[in-house]
């Protein structure tokens, strides 16, 4: 889950930046560049936290909030991501599971 969101964050900051900026502007996000940078940075941080096992539950919370927001926007408007909404629903469920079950034995932040 962490590696997937690292990849999504890096992709949004580099290769798909122009396309995502135009979609966010069309959806009505006034500071589209700020919104995209914030969303991509949070995806990257959440993915890093989960993948490295540092602040795992904080990273899982970030991923859950991002996934819920993208699913919500996909239901109301045109999807803002190339991945289908089902992908983000599954990511949301996995993140909530990590959030409530805990980081696991290989994490550095055991409760």
Explain what you see:
α1 (2-13) runs antiparallel to α3 (32-52), α2 (17-27) packs across α3 (32-52) and α3 (32-52) packs across α4. The model has no long low-confidence stretch (mean pLDDT 89). This protein starts with a helix and ends in a 10-residue tail after the last helix. It is mostly helical. It is built from five helices and no strands.
> What are the secondary-structure elements, in order, as H or E?
HHHHH
Counting helices, strands and paired strands, the structural category is mainly alpha
From the alpha-carbon coordinates, what is the Rg to the nearest angstrom?
14 Å
- Detail the poorly predicted runs: none
Helicity range: over 70%
Counted beta strands: 0
What would you call the shape? globular
Strand and helix layout:
Blueprint: H1 2-13, H2 17-27, H3 32-52, H4 56-76, H5 85-101
Task: Summarize this structure briefly.
With 111 residues, the protein is an all-alpha fold.
Highlighted features:
5 helices, 111 residues, mainly alpha, single chain
